[in-house]
Amino acid sequence: MAVVCVRSTWNALSPRLSCDTRPLILKALSELFSLVPSLAVNTAEYEDPIVASAAYKSLSPFSSGEHTVLHLPEKIRPEMPVPDELEEEEAVDLSIPGPCYLRLLTITAPSVLPALEEFFTSLVKQEMVNMPRGIYHSALKGGIRSDQGKTVAGIPNFILKMYETNKQPGLKPGLAGGMLFCYDVAMYQSKDGKPLNRLMASRGRSFKQTSLALVHEVHVQPSEWHRALFLPQAWLAYMTRAYHAVLQGRIAELELQLQHGKEGPEEVQYKRSTAWLWVRDMLTDEITKTAAKESPVVKGNALLALSSLAVVVSKHEASLSSDSDGVLEVQPNFLPVKEWVSMVLNTLLVIVDSHYHPRGQLFSCFYHKSYSGENTASAIARSAAATALSLLVPVFITSCKEKVEEILNMLTARLPGKPSADESQAVQIHMGLALGMFLSRLCEEKLSDMSGQQMNLLLIKSLDALENCCFDPSLEHNTGCVLGVGLALSLMSHSSHTESRVHVAASLRKLSTYLDDSGSQSRTFQEVLAYTLSCVCTSAFSAGIIEAVEAEDIMNKLQLLVESNQQTSGFALALGNLVHGLSVCGHGKAEDLGNRLLPNWIRVVLAEGSSTMLCLAALHGLVALVGSDVDVMQLKSEAIQSAHSQARLNEVIRTLTELVQHSNKPVGQCLRLKPSWLLAYPEEVIGLELIAVLVRQGGRFLHPFTGVTARSWLARQASAWRRDAQVDPSRCCWGAPLLEAALQPAAAGFKTAGPEAVPPSLLKVVMKPIATVGESYQYPPVNLAALLSPLMRLNFGEEIQQLCLEIAVTQAPSSQSAAALLGLWVMPPLIHGLSTNIKKYLLVSLPLWVKHVSDEQVQSFVENLMVAVFKAASPPSHPELCLSALQGLSQAMKLPSPSHNLWSLLCDATGRIFDLLPNRIRRSDLELYISVAKCLSEMTDGGASQHSQITQDNIEKAAFVKLYLVSQGRLPLMSLMDLIMAAMQHREKQTLAWMILHCLYQARIVSHANTGVLKRLEWLLELMGYMRNLGYQPAPDQTVALHEALDFLLLIFAAAVMVWADHEAPLLLGLSASWLPWHRENGASGPAAALLGRSPMHRVTVQEVFTFLPSSMLLLLQKEPWKEQTQKFIDWLFSIMEIPNEAFAAKSKDLLKATLLSLRVLPEFKKKAVWTRAYGW
Q1: Can you tell me the distance from the alpha carbon of 376 to that of 352, in angstroms, rounded to the nearest whole number?
Q2: Which of 117, 295, 607, 849 could form a disulfide with 765, with the two C-beta atoms 3.0–4.6 Å apart?
Q3: CA 915, CA 809: separation in Å to the nearest integer?
Q4: For residues 326 and 194, what is the distance between their CA atoms, to the nearest angstrom?
Q5: What number is the average pLDDT over the span 118-128?
Q6: What pLDDT digit, counting tens, does each position of 34-75 carry?
Q7: For residues 123 and 774, is the Cβ–Cβ distance under 8 A?
Q8: Is the sign of the CA dihedral 223, 430, 483, 464 positive or negative?
Q9: Is 484 helix (H, G, I), strand (E, B) or coil?
């Protein structure tokens, strides 16, 4: 007999022969085993897909720590280090590395992949549950850990070190400017992720000391136009960090006092709750005391610091109000924030306008009284106060919008050439700049979208005045006006108003022509004009106002200026700014020019024979070329920085730091030697602008991850995690590296290999766990945009695209890069390439991401998808998309504390969708109208009424929406009277009567204060009174026959009595507690049957209401509180029955008489006067 299975043979012999050591036995066994190759068969039952799937699914519910892997297939095994190469004290890490998971995919059968996906999801979820809290903080605060990141992350320490070790007083101002942008102190945490109170308190004290130092040392020079552009925002950024650091330090000190027993729990609790006000007053005292005795420069810095503090405190108060449902406890020992902010504002206005008469208190340390009784201050203080007003724009819009007009008029009246213009040249320059800053911030806050016509006219008037000063060649000292025009037009470019975009295009061409004709102007004026032109041109191209050809012409014009004036810093700054802005917006020729300019300018800076002026111009061009001034324009460009852009930034930074540290050239020694002939070029070239390169780009390069850095960081975190967890070296376990492995495909090759090399089915197994777990957990701060963007663009299929967007949506609240990626894909042209299922997901998930992308992106999404799906056809051709749009919209409108602009967008979208819906309601589309009603219910009563006004063209859908809101208690029953009056004029009264019938029945079922029995009684009495008045005193403008109006009102009265009397009659007529079942019923076919309220069954239901009126009236008047009004009902029946025959049909009178006689069992009817009158005796 042939042996077919060696394994079964050995199983039978092994108990006796496995331990036998006799030579002959061993020889025979060897010969037996030699037959194995010739008898080999495929008996790998463990590879059966059913077995493998069951194994993965059974492992999923277990904790990863309970998995002990005894065997790994050879193809996926990690490379183990040779024992001799290991250090003696280093423990062997036997956990499964991330790449093993990917190799496991390649040897897994396709039918097993769903089970493997479920297993991966389980492991990723466990990793997120067990993720140490400190990982998030250390990732965000630890700086960048890649070669690219180290270049950027080292700059704050570089500036701080130079600031602390500098021994020459003359160098302090420039270094202090850099400190203003970047100073911060690391936050330390214990092993459990909690901050250390002692170190937090020390951090707060460090910020307090540094704040006072910077007020003294930051350089404020009115003639430095480029520094003046960014100094207010720099102070705002610093005071934001300082305020919160000091606040955290104050809370930490209180915790320490509680721990040491120096304060009681109640006292500490009170001081904790008022710590934010205590810090405000402490910083205010320090700033004002410093300003009281010091120089004009200190007063200027103090004004900027105090104004910034006002903005920060107002935002902090708003956040506290949202956390406490809008109610903040009044603190008697502290001045209310509104009054304190008013003091700051009044102080600024008094300094700007010496004739200003404030109504409240002031900080008098910033000015003094002259002999004539006026409030006077230095030119620097007046300049700083004017520019500081722009910082307070968000405060004005939220709490005192009336101040906007006052400030605009004040600044406009002090422009150069005006009768009230200041005598100081520097102040005239700063007034123009301040007005431009103020207008730009108003544009940024979308004031024109939320204000009336009068405010919009004022904004246009102020901008016209500013432009008139800018383009007036006879004026002197109007460089500030030129800069102000540039700021205002740059922000106006992003407006959605056509007239604003047309104005920007016209002004841009005017600026270009003005630059051509500016040969007779001063060199400084030409530099400012060139810089302004670069800003406006970049913003206009970014917003699509001008074409690439026009932008290229302006770029060539600036390039010629730079080539013919190589030692002029302003021209180089303008060209670098324009080239950078156009490049990030996709202008190919600008990218090519940037690649040529960068090495040329670096060569000039590092060359030993270059003149100082030439080097300074090249330095200005370099920093602008990598985006130092990008915040002026707020470009609508892709926020995901390419590796090329990051490399360019790193190269510029290395050049500047090398120049400062090692160069012997005068320009390189300006921070150390500062010769007098360099006084015209302040240290902002290195100290201020270098840091501004980082800060003005919104911290993009200070993000912990760039490109594939996420994988290496996660690998280090996983390794550290395993070491901290003291993994048992006797076994391998599934563990922390899976998150790294899940992100690795996108970072290591999937994003470049494409679907030809990596099947989408395998990629789905990797991406699905991340998307699923991401719905419930916040991932570590990975640069998700850099990982997901390639997968979105390559042809991996619809499913991978949707998974990527799901990850972006769920992580957008905590990841700026995810929000940036999402913002690109919700706008054209990318959104048009998405599938229907993905669009449906984006619509439904709107509430998850709408607050984390820009208002422009939300508006584009609304225009191009949300509203567009309703424009496609009538009835809608994609009802599933329409319903998803309304579901997402209604949920988004429920979000707490949306911005004014966002709320306006959502309300406007609701109104437009309502207008696009057909007036006649198809029963299959009924859910769309209900969803629109839910959206309207989130608005105020006035807003809902404005967007759903009833006209003869939309009466059916408007009536349905209003009736739905009434039936749910959202609107009072009394609001039905206007609808009923409009319905009487409509030719399809039966359709509206059917809707009203259902509304009244559902109002009885819904438990709400507006639909209670007393409210229903009140409304029915109001209807009865209106009907009686109409019968005896018809309205002079009545357009419908009186008998038709009375019959309709009687029908509504009968419907209310029938549905409110009991539940039997409504059920017999087929009424339901929900609107929705009716559009699914099987009834008569035909166009009319498909419309709500128009089928034969619906018409029969309405007519049968009269049949139930007599019996229902008796049932109703036997209940409380209706029985108390029985006499009123009887009197009303008599009065209606006695209406002249020509005004009321005999059939209706007979019905009312039958109703009256049905009440004969009631005590009120048994009165002789009543029953004799009823029977006609």
Answers
A1: 9
A2: 117
A3: 30
A4: 29
A5: 82
A6: 766 665 555 555 567 787 787 777 777 877 667 677 777 777
A7: no
A8: negative
A9: helix
